[in-house]
């Protein structure tokens, strides 16, 4: 009960525009610096380089919330392009994750599409990959529609599917042949569209992971749960699914020992590395996911 109360509280805070604005001014305080790799592209590249040296590959995400005008959307797209150019110039092993709302999805669909084309063309030039993060349910259909349109022109783009949605199995089937990040889901959604029971979500999560792997498609299994990870390893062995068909993903700053152990076993271990000054919404959703993360953030305040 308390876990659900905390989850709803932090999800509520994540959508507060006034607090988001204040957080930008305050900087990476309140423990956020433990899970966010600084504010600049240079900060992100340096973090990725250090992770690469440990045998971990990465994806970077320039954080952004509440983009509601063309200028901000274009600026965000240009920043993504610069990030891809910096990745190529540095030689680090890293791709790019982004949210379509940061590129103007709520402003003008055509603007968002054109921004994505520019980003994907840059990534293609450097033989890199771009993953579209999945956002709340209100943006789901628009995200998948745009993804399908883009995939007619570019093969270097994928997305994510959230296991807590009733439609997850159908979406995975429709995305056969697409690289998908498989996640449980981090937004507060209505019981009309999303499973509310944790055990049922866990069950559906494993179901769609197996479904996508058996489809012969590339799966990015994003989980910090060692039980899930062991189940995926076992399933892959039993079904002769090569390690090259899937990877594990974790968030920067969480379960670092487990990340290293997985990489040493010969599995692809990718770290999701967020950066930028618009960190507030991302950080609140991480606190909502697990009550333990609140204690983790508190340690960041007092261990400076």
Automatic annotation (TrEMBL):
Substrate binds at residues 99, 285-286. GO terms for molecular function: nucleotide binding; proline dehydrogenase activity. Pfam families: Pro_dh. Keywords: FAD, Flavoprotein, Nucleotide-binding, Oxidoreductase, Proline metabolism. Pathway: Amino-acid degradation; L-proline degradation into L-glutamate; L-glutamate from L-proline: step 1/2. It comes from the Bacteria. Gene3D superfamilies: 3.20.20.220. Its EC number is 1.5.5.2. FAD binds at residues 134, 162, 184-186, 198, 223-224. Residues 44-297 form the Proline dehydrogenase domain. Binds 1 FAD per subunit. One of its GO terms (biological process) is L-proline catabolic process to L-glutamate. It catalyses: L-proline + a quinone = (S)-1-pyrroline-5-carboxylate + a quinol + H(+). PANTHER family: PROLINE DEHYDROGENASE 1, MITOCHONDRIAL (PTHR13914:SF0), PROLINE OXIDASE (PTHR13914). This is proline dehydrogenase. It comes from Anaerobacillus arseniciselenatis.
């Amino acid at each position: 009960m308390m876990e659900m109360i905390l989850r709803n509280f932090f999800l509520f805070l994540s959508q507060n525009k006034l607090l988001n604005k204040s957080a930008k001014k305050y900087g990476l305080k309140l423990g956020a610096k433990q899970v966010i790799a600084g504010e600049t592209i240079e900060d992100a590249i340096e973090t990725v380089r250090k992770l690469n040296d440990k045998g971990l590959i990465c994806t970077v995400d320039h954080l952004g919330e509440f983009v509601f005008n063309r200028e901000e959307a274009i600026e965000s797209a240009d920043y993504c392009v610069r990030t891809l150019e910096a990745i190529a110039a540095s030689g680090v092993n890293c791709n790019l994750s982004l949210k379509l709302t940061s590129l103007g999805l709520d402003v003008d669909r055509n603007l968002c599409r054109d921004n994505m084309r520019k980003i994907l063309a840059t990534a293609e030039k450097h033989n890199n990959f771009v993953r579209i993060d999945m956002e709340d349910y209100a943006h789901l259909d628009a995200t998948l529609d745009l993804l399908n349109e883009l995939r007619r022109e570019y093969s270097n783009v994928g997305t994510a599917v959230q296991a807590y949605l009733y439609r997850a199995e159908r979406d995975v089937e429709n995305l056969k042949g697409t690289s998908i990040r498989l996640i449980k889901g981090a937004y507060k959604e209505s019981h009309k569209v999303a499973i509310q029971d944790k055990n049922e979500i866990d069950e559906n999560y494993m179901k769609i992971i197996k479904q996508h792997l058996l489809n012969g498609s590339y799966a990015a299994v994003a989980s910090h749960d060692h039980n899930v990870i062991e189940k995926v390893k076992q399933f892959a062995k039993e079904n002769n699914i090569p390690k090259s068909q899937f990877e594990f993903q974790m968030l920067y700053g969480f379960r670092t020992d487990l990340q290293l152990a997985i990489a040493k076993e010969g599995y692809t271990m990718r770290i999701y590395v967020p950066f930028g000054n618009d960190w507030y919404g991302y950080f609140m959703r991480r606190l909502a996911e697990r009550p333990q993360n609140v204690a983790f953030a508190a340690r960041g305040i007092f261990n400076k």
